[in-house]
Amino acid sequence: xxxxxxxxxxxxxxxxxxxxxxxxxxxxxxxxxxxxxxxxxxxxxxxxxxxxxxxxxxxxxxxxxxxxxxxxxxxxxxxxxxxxxxxxxxxxxxxxxxxxxxxxxxxxxxxxxxxxxxxxxxxxxxxxxxxxxxxxxxxxxxxxxxxxxxxxxxxxxxxxxxxxxxxxxxxxxxxxxxxxxxxxxxxx
Amino acid sequence: xxxxxxxxxxxxxxxxxxxxxxxxxxxxxxxxxxxxxxxxxxxxxxxxxxxxxxxxxxxxxxxxxxxxxxxxxxxxxxxxxxxxxxxxxxxxxxxxxxxxxxxxxxxxxxxxxxxxxxxxxxxxxxxxxxxxxxxxxxxxxxxxxxxxxxxxxxxxxxxxxxxxxxxxxxxxxxxxxxxxxxxxxxxxxxxxxxxxxxxxxxxxxxxxxxxxxxxxxxxxxxxxxxxxxxxxxxxxxxxxxxxxxxxxxxxxxxxxxxxxxxxxxxxxxxxxxxxxxxxxxxxxxxxxxxxxxxxxxxxxxxxxxxxxxxxxxxxxx
Lengths: 188, 317
Hints:
The complex is a heterodimer of chains A (188) and B (317). Chain A has 188 residues and is an alpha+beta fold. Chain A has five helices and nine strands; from the N terminus they run βαββαββαββαβαβ. Chain A is 18% helix and 25% strand. In chain A, the strands form four sheets. In chain A, strands 8-1-9 form a three-stranded mixed β-sheet. Chain A has a two-stranded antiparallel sheet with strand order 2-3. In chain A, a hairpin with a 2-residue loop joins strand 2 and strand 3 (49-58). The model of chain A has no long low-confidence stretch (mean pLDDT 94). Chain B has 317 residues and is mainly alpha-helical. Chain B has a single domain (18-314), classed as Formate dehydrogenase/DMSO reductase domain (Formate dehydrogenase/DMSO reductase fold, Up-down Bundle). Chain B has helices spanning 18-41, 53-76, 85-88, 95-117, 119-124, 132-140, 142-165, 178-201, 208-239, 241-252, 254-278, 281-284, 287-314; one strand at residues 2-5. In chain B, helix 1 runs antiparallel to helix 2 and helix 11 packs antiparallel against helix 13. The two termini of chain B are 16 Å apart. In chain B, 46% of the residues are buried. The mean pLDDT of chain B is 94. Chains A and B meet through strand 2, helix 2 and helix 3 of A and strand 1 and helix 4 of B. Strand 2 of chain A pairs antiparallel with strand 1 (2-5) of chain B, so a sheet runs across the interface.
C-alpha cells in the first residue's frame, strides 16, 4: 500500500541547534555553500521585547510538485509513495526545476554538477525503514516523521491534536512537510 | 526581522542568467522575421522570384538566429553534453518539451524556406546542388509549407512566454499576458531585423513599398506592446497583496526599473512612436532613418527580455 509520509516540524520545540543540518550534510555528503536542509534563525520584535523564530528550509515533498511538471525529460519524478526524486542520468541540468520550486529547495551540487535536494534520505535510510537523518538526531523531538495513514503513528496523532501550517499552501503544492506554528506569537 | 543564522545563498538568487534572455530574444526575433517575410511574400506582386530583399532577409535570419539561440541554450546547461537527453525523453506537461517539439518542426521548415528563396544561390550555382530537390519541394508546395511555418513560428514566439508564465511563484512572470507580449515584441524584432538586413545587404531588391508597409506595421505592433505592458502591471496591482507589492517593486526599484523605463519603454517603444509622428515625411522614409529606427527597436526588445527574466526572478513579493 502507498505510504502517506508526513514530516512535522514543531517551531515550539526547535532550539536552532542545527543538528539536523549537520546530520543531513554528513549523511548526504552535501558540499559547502549549498543546503538540502537548514534551519533559519531570526529575531523578531523590538528590544527589549524580542523573540526568536526558527524556520526549517528544505524540500517539502509536494504532492503536486511544480519541479516535476516543468521538467522536460521526466528526470524529476514522483514515486508511488509521492516522494519527489531526481534521475541524475536523465537530467540535462537546464535548471528549470530550480527556478520553478517555490521553496528554493533545489541546487546544483558544485562537485557532481547535478541537481540535488532533500530525498528524506530515501536511498540510505528511508528505504531501510529508518527515519531521515535530520529526524533521527533532533535533540528536542521538534521533528517527527512517519506515515500519516497509519492511525497510531506519531505524525497521525500529532496531526489530529495540533494546528498544522503547510508552507505556501496558497500555491496548491500540497506539501508533506508541515509546521506547528509558534504559540507565543511575535513580540512587539 | 533579523537573520541571525542561515545562509541566504540559495534563496532570492537569479537561476537563469543572460544567455537565456538572449535566447528568448533570438527565438522571438527568428519567429518574427519569418512571419513578416511570409506576410510580405503573400502580398500581390511579391509572390514570384526574384524575391524581395525583405523575404531574403527573413529567410536567412530565421534559421540563423534560432540556431544561435539554441547553441546559447545548450551552453547554458550545467552539463552541456547532456542536452541530447532532451531529444529522447519527453514530458508533455512541460512547456520546455512542447517548445522542443515546436522547434523540432520549426527548424526544418525554416531551412526549407531558406532553400526555396535562395534556390539559385544555394542549389543551382552554390555548393548544395544535391539539395536541389529540397529547394524544388519548398517552391512547389510554397503556400502550404509557409502556412505551416507561420503557425509554428507563432508557437515558437509564444512558447518562450509560456515557459516563464508557467511558474506560479513568480508574480511578474505568472501572468497570461506574457506570451502575447513576447509574441508581439518578437514580431517587432523580426520586422526590424528584416528591415536592417534587407536595406543593408539586399539594397537593390528591397522595394520601398514593402519597407513602408513593414515599418508602418512595426509602429502598430509597438502600440500593442505598450498596451500589453500596461495590462501586465495594472493586472498585478488589481491582484493586490504580494503580487501588487512585487509589481510596484518591479516598476520602481534599482537598475532593473531604470532598464524598464529607459531601455524598454523609452528607447524601444516611445522613441520610435515619437519619431514616427514628429519627423517630416522625407526623413521618415529615408533608408538611414528606417535602419536607425529598427536598431533602437531591437535594443528595446532585447532589454525587455532581459528585464522580464531578471526582474521576474528578483521581485517575488
